[in-house]
Amino acid sequence: MNSLKVKTGDNVLVIAGKDKGKVSTVKATSPKSSKVVVEGVNVQTKHVKARNTKQKSQIIKQEGPISVSNVMVVCPACEKATRVAKKEVDGKMVRVCKKCGASLDTEKKVVKAKKEKSTKTTSAKPAKEKTTKASTKTTAPKASKAKSSTKRVVKSGDR
């Protein structure tokens, strides 16, 4: 399996294709096919046919995947399109900008997640009491329809 140097949420610059020069964020990545979906890039029109009378036929515009080789990561520190290097920092592999050396992996998400977990565990809120509501559904007994089966007895002479 290929590992991409571009991750979901990265700002990238399109360096080839009909949308060359656009800077946007990555919506999805596909490492197996080495493709990424970038917001507002490679917009395709899709015609959707109504499947029943309640639906409407429509034309949908959606982003298509483009090759990873056609995008470059934009460094948040120096705001330039750059190649990506990997460096070990505090025992973790981190993506680093080749031009300025700044980290491309945002540690803010990890820090925020740790803070939220710590506040949940340290807060001394009383546990909510679970109240059970009586079921308001009433079930009526099902009316059973007795099927009368009339089988025709075929004698050997009737055929």
Question: How would you characterize this protein structure?
Answer:
By secondary structure, this protein is mainly beta. The chain has a domain at 11-49 and 59-107: SH3 type barrels, CATH 2.30.30. The chain contains 1 helix and 10 strands. It has one helix spanning 108-122, and strands spanning 11-14, 23-30, 35-38, 43-48, 58-63, 65-67, 71-74, 81-82, 84-89, 92-97. The chain has a 6-stranded antiparallel beta sheet with strand order 6-3-2-1-7-8, with no helix packed on it. Strands 4-5 form a two-stranded antiparallel sheet. Strands 9-10 form a two-stranded antiparallel sheet. Strand 9 and strand 10 (92-97) form a beta hairpin. The chain is elongated. The termini are far apart. Residues 108-115 have low confidence and may be disordered.
